[in-house]
Amino acid sequence: MNATPNITSPAAEISIAFDARAELEAWVAAGYPHETCGLLIGRRRGERTEVERVEQARNRNTERARDRYDLDPDDQLAADLRAREDGLEIVGIWHSHPDHPARPSETDRSKAWEGWSYVIVAVTADGVADLRSWRLSASSDPSRFVEEPIR
Fold first, then answer.
1. What are phi and psi of 80, to 5 degrees?
2. Which domain holds residue 137?
3. What digits encode the pLDDT tens for the residues 104-137?
4. Is residue 60 part of a domain?
5. Is the pLDDT of residue 4 over 90?
6. DSSP character for 82?
7. What CATH number has the domain bearing residue 56?
8. Does residue 2 form part of some domain?
9. Of 16-20, 49-53, 68-72, 141-145, where does mean pLDDT reach its minimum?
10. Separation between Cα atoms, residue 141 and residue 129, nearest integer Å
C-alpha cells in the first residue's frame, strides 16, 4: 500500500442495500488474502448515492493481488449493460484491503474518478474488519478523498 492521500471531512452520503452489503462482505472474506473488486450499481439522488446491488469483477493484477487490483474492463462493461437494462447505473467501485485499513491509498486516489463512490473493505484472516466509502472532493482540491457516511 502507498501512503494515505489527503482526506477531508464528510460531504455526500451513501446507502447500501442490506443484501448487497452481505454479498459484498462474503466475496471479500472468500477472496482473502487477495484484493477483490467490483462495481456498485444503483442511482444518485443529489448528493446521496443509493447502492441497490453489487457486482463482482475479476482482478487482473495477478502479480500483486495481495495489495493491488485492476478491475477487468470486460466485467465493468457487462455490469454497465445489466445496470442500464434495469434503469440503474454504475455509481462506484468496491475493493478490499487485505490486512490494511479501509482507507484509500495513493494508488486508489490516482485511479479514482470524481463523482464515483469508492467502498473499501478491510479484511483479515478473521473476516471483514471494516467497510467505509470515499469520494474525490468536488472542492478546489479534487485530489482529496472525502469520506461518505454509510446509511
1. -65, -45
2. 7-148
3. 999 998 889 888 999 999 999 999 999 999 998 7
4. yes
5. no
6. H
7. 3.40.140.10
8. no
9. 141-145
10. 30
The pLDDT score that the predictor gives to residue 104 is 95
Counted domains in the chain: 1
Residue 91: helix, strand or coil by DSSP?
Answer: strand
Sign of the alpha-carbon dihedral angle for 74, 143, 62, 30: negative
The three cell numbers of residue 103 are 482507507
Tell me the pLDDT tens digit for each residue of 37-86.
Answer: 999 999 999 889 999 999 999 999 999 999 999 999 999 999 999 999 99
The verdict on residue 1 lying in a domain is: no
- Provide the grid cell at 144: 482529496
Task: Confirm if 6 and 145 have CB atoms less than 8 A apart.
Answer: yes
**Strand pairing of 37-45 and 89-98?**
antiparallel
Strand partners, 103: none
**Residues 6 or more apart in contact with residue 62 via CB below 8 angstroms:** none
Q: What is the pTM of this model?
A: 0.89
Label residue 10 left, alpha or beta by phi (over 0 means left) and psi (-120 to 50 means alpha): beta
Does a cis peptide bond (omega within 30 degrees of 0) precede residue 33? yes
Cβ-count burial 116-134 (b if 16+ within 10 Å, e if not): bbbbbbbbeeeebeebbbb
Residue 93 belongs to a domain = yes
